[in-house]
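Worked example 2:
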Amino acid sequence: MTEETAVPTADGPAVRDAVTVRMPAASAYLSVLRTATAGLAARLDFTLDEIEDLRIAVDEACAMLLAQALPGADLTAEFELGEDGMRVVVSALTSNGEVPARDTFAWTVLTALAGSVDAQVGPDDRVSIILNKRRGRPA
């Protein structure tokens, strides 16, 4: 796990801290990620309900990626802590390079829990799910 302090950018609000967690793409390790998510959200003074929503959202996003992750691949979670919220990008190398379907119940739940949600495919069929959760606002 790495942590760094960042500075304001011309493109948007300042990022207070950035933390990256990399682990094997296996469900046995998701409890570590849920704990890290809750701890970082608490650091931003999210309410208990907001922390739980974000923790479940990260878990659901990871479950979507694990279903198509290559055997032996890593799951990476990048947390950017801002002034009033958190951006979480979870990604894994996948077998098919397809983003999760947005018309599913799972995607609807993910959006309800996290607020803003997106997905994209990068090099080598690395699929990323991006969650943006703001403090003090309903999802």
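The radius of gyration is 14 Å. The longest helix spans residues 48-66.
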